[in-house]
């Protein structure tokens, strides 16, 4: 736009001019290999960020699973404790019945108490079986919870490594240092390796 012999630039003209200069600079950088390196690092960052997000999700999921299994273990332990208390109650009744059987002189009374003793013994064995099953279930849930927490730590380690790799990529972009590029690839490979261990439950 001209006014009185002077050329006045509007906002749109400035934007077009800036974009044109930016394109020329990028093209000039690409000719010297800089643009290619920048694009490579940008692509690397996008891929690593995506994989890191997946690892973070898996880490959160395994931590939640570990908490649920630990809660299930606590419930089973409480149920087992209740069964053992019930078992103890039957044992006390059995002991009293045995004492009464031994003290009574009448054979008919002895037979009656002996029948109670036999019933208590049978009930005790049934209660013991249930209690031991609950304890075994609680132990199994504890082991599963520990395994899930171990896997959670693996996912967390892998996620952290990928985050470090992304940070190194950002610094590499700013400084154009080749050794930082190698470093980001190495740390990313480490993170992927730890992620593979988590996936394989190792």
Lay out the secondary structure.
Layout: E1 2-3, E2 6-7, H1 11-31, H2 34-103, H3 107-175, H4 178-199
Antiparallel strand pairs: 1-2
**Shape label:** rod-shaped
Structural class by secondary-structure content: mainly alpha
Task: Return the string of H and E elements.
Answer: EEHHHH
Helix amount = over 70%
End-to-end CA span: 70 Å
User: From the structure provided, what is the oligomeric state, counting identical versus distinct chains?
Assistant: single chain
Parts with pLDDT < 50 across at least 5 consecutive residues: 1-33
Strand order of the largest sheet: 1-2
Descriptive notes:
The chain has 202 residues and is an all-alpha fold. The chain is built from four helices and two strands, in the order E-E-H-H-H-H. A two-stranded antiparallel sheet has the order 1-2. The chain is rod-shaped. It starts with a strand and ends with a helix.
